[in-house]
Every structure is written in structure tokens, then in C-alpha cells.
Amino acid sequence: MTTSARIVVTGKIPEAGLEILRTAGELWAWDSSEPIPLPVRNEQLADAEVAVTLLTDRVDDAFLDAAPRLRLVANVAVGYNNIDVAACDRRGVIVTNTPGVLTDATADLAMALVLMSTRRLGEGERLIRSGTPWQWGMFMMLGVGLQGRQLGIVGMGAIGEALARRARAFGMTVVYNNRRAAAPEIEADLGARLVDLPELLATSDVVSLNCPYSESTHHLIDADALALMKPSAVLVNTARGPIVDEAALVSALRSGQIAGAALDVFEREPEVDPGLVELDNVVLIPHLGSATIETRSAMAALAARNVVEVLAGREPISRVTL
Ligand code: DGY
Fold this sequence. Notes:
Elements: E1 6-9, H1 15-22, E2 26-29, H2 38-45, E3 50-53, H3 61-65, E4 72-75, H4 85-90, E5 94-96, H5 103-118, H6 121-129, E6 150-154, H7 158-169, E7 173-177, H8 184-190, E8 192-194, H9 197-203, E9 206-209, H10 223-228, E10 234-237, H11 246-254, E11 260-263, H12 274-277, E12 282-284, H13 293-311
Parallel strand pairs: 1-2, 1-3, 3-4, 4-5, 6-7, 6-9, 7-8, 9-10, 10-11, 11-12
Helix pairs in contact: 1-13, 5-7
């Protein structure tokens, strides 16, 4: 059902989403990979009832002030730390996100980072590209195998579970830390055991962060947490940058307190701490967790379906609640 509601898309999204949005209301979409200039965004938001946003949009009071008729913010991401949900709530603006559709892509990337860091693949790639002469050697760039090693998953949501399944296929054992224990059948299926965070950090060979970012997870991995980790352990972050105190991580990597890190997200994204860039035992990826053609299309389509539901006066498929 097409309505006369004005829908503003603040960044370039796949056609799979736009196609649905065109059937839902009067669509205006920013069509460039460059960020939308603020004056253009605010002009478009002035009479918008729906804003379809990306994780690079900060939806705060200033954004909401520019959009006095807004009823819905449909974020094209599962994470919604870019949105002040309380501010939206105070103004009666519904917020939705895109859970589920990016689980496999993100878990695949996390597993790739586990392999990249434990097998030193970034270092190997850089060696060849640098033109440095090399020859096969019995002791050249030795990594560690995953079989029998322990993966500690911080945050056992859908992505954590999907990563646990992948890790088990590689012969890893799994422990996890979460606010709530997983259902016994899921624990049994994953062979995963709930432990407290200090135990997870102290006993895991690979620590993977898969929890949402919020005030309570800000700098969850700080100098004290890093000090608990084994000197042979690596840290993988595909969740959100500010969960890790990046300055403390640089010190821990420099001093050999931990063996390595593989990061898809950064504390001051897109800025990357120069201390990380100069270290060889760090894999750095530009926030590619959900970056497959299929997944990005599915994310855009789910965000658009949320718009359709809200404009039809129904409950959205994936509403964010406070
Ligand atoms: C999300 O959806 O939150 C991801 O970080 C996007 O890749």
C-alpha cells in the first residue's frame, strides 16, 4: 500500500530496499557513497515521516530537531549505538534495526579473523607485497593450530552462536560469557560452557567480542581485562570499537602481554590508532562484517519491510526497545 508519507534515506542502500520503499511512500534517497552533507540532510528531513539510516548517521536530538514530523527511524544495521533510542522514545519515534540477516556473514568474518591472526596471514601477505626476498622455511612465520584451543565468546547472541558453530568445526572448544545463560539445548549443541568474564579471559586462546555496544560494555576490554589474558592469546573484535580501550590494547600488544589482535571495528572509526597500524601482530579490516552483496541487500530489504509495517499501522518486524 503506497502512502503519502515522505521517506528519507540518508545514505546509499541496495536496490532491494529502495524497491520496497518506493511502494511504501514518497521516497527520497541520497544516492552517493559520499556522506550526505548536513544541510541537504536537514532540508530533506524537514517533512520526513520516516528516516532510513546507516550506522554512520548519528541520530541524536539535533537529528530529531531537524525532523519534527518523524515517526520512524529504520536503521540498516543490527547495531543501533548510533541512535539515541531514549531521545526517539521521548518524541514517540519508533526505532528498528536489522537482526538475523547478517548473522552468518559476520560470523564468517569473525572466523576469518581468527584464522588470519592465528596463522599470521596478514603478515604473510605484507611480506610478499613488500617485495622482500623469501623462501620456504621450516620455521618461517609459524602460527598456531586451532584444534583443541579454546575460543571465548563475549556476548552469546545469534552471531556468537554462529561463530561457536564454526569454531567447533575447526576443533575448538568454546566457553562464553553472557548476561543470560543460553538454553541447555543450545549449550549442548554448541558444546559451549558459560563462565564469568575473568575466567574466559584467563583461559581462552582466542577471545572474540560479539556483544552489543552500550554504556555497560564501553571499554569492557581495558588494561585490567587485557592483563588477565594469556600472553599467547589473540583478541578478535567484530562488534563495536569502543568495547575495547584501544590505547590499552596497543600497550598490551607492544609489550607482548597478548600475542595479537584482529579488528574489524575501531574506537574512533574510521580513524585507526597509528599505534595499531605499525604493529605486525594486528589484523586490521575496515568494518566488513556484513559486507556481502546478499547480506547488504537483505539488510536493506528488512529495514524497508519495517517501514512498510509501520506506515500500515502495524508493529514493525524488528523494533528496538529501551
Ligand atoms: C551492524 O549491522 O551493526 C554491522 O556492524 C554492520 O556491518
